[in-house]
Amino acid sequence: MSDRVEFAVMNGLGNKILVIDMRGRTDRVTPAAAIALAADPATAFDQIMAIHDPRVDGTDAYIDILNCDGSKAQACGNGTRCVVQALASETGRKSFTFQTVAGILNAVEHPDGTISVDMGKPVFAWDKIPLSEEFHDTSRIELQIGPIDAPILHSPSAMSMGNPHAVFWVDRDPMTYDLERFGPLLENHPIFPEKANITLAQVTSKTSMITRTWERGAGLTLACGSAACAAGVSAARTGRTERKVTITVASSPNRGTLTIDWRPDDKVVMTGPAEWEWSGTVDPVTGSWQRDVSADAEAATP
Fold this sequence. Notes:
It contains five helices and 20 strands. The protein has helices at 31-39, 77-91, 179-187, 225-237, 293-300, and strands spanning 5-12, 15-21, 47-52, 61-67, 72-73, 95-100, 103-109, 115-118, 144-145, 153-154, 157-160, 164-169, 197-205, 208-215, 219-220, 244-249, 257-262, 268-272, 275-282, 289-291. The relative contact order is 0.18. It comes from Peteryoungia aggregata LMG 23059. The active site is at residues 76, 224. Belongs to the diaminopimelate epimerase family. Keywords: Amino-acid biosynthesis, Cytoplasm, Isomerase, Lysine biosynthesis.
């Protein structure tokens, strides 16, 4: 078995994604390889999406997701869009069904190049998110940062989109908050036994929001698809917005947008872009990589 496999450096609204092709192999991308790739500025990423042969009939691939610290992730919406774009370019197909730890995901590439991913159904039960304390109503849990009588952040909505999320409601641009300082404290708060993604959300109308996310296992990220889903669902759940919203991701390049639609069947569909940057080969055990110069030249040809 060759030491190297093909991989692509991509992004979804700036969310840095490595798509690694592990089809035809029985091994996995190791945590050591993930950490080495994350430490290299050329391949630094938020998530690795490793494409494996399907394990379940009716699916096109099994997707193994890793964070930049080598830990496993259950879901990554922006990364799933990148996988769809890569496979659509390879096969000419437009619709796919993937298996992940979080469940089965269906996705489709539209004629305009945007990609919709069915992210599944939200989970609100406190012990399924999970939380370490029982809350009858997880749309507002007791958690705050700052002085007791004047907290900076407080009373987030908690839920799971296959991974745990806490959405804090803010009344000004999320970029004006020191999320780099608050993020690690909240991600690792004892109330989240499996840690949590932390999102600041500013509602700007019944159909629009602005968000910024500290991502579990990755830190400050330019974008997080599952967090956008959590913010959109939580906003509708608490009566702040309608069930279909446009989310401006404040930290993404040019403040890109995602459309989140919490459909009547309870499924959450996220629509947004994906972008290929460059490709090469990588050793999934060590993280040693090489850039494909010929692919760069082909992409640059008018």
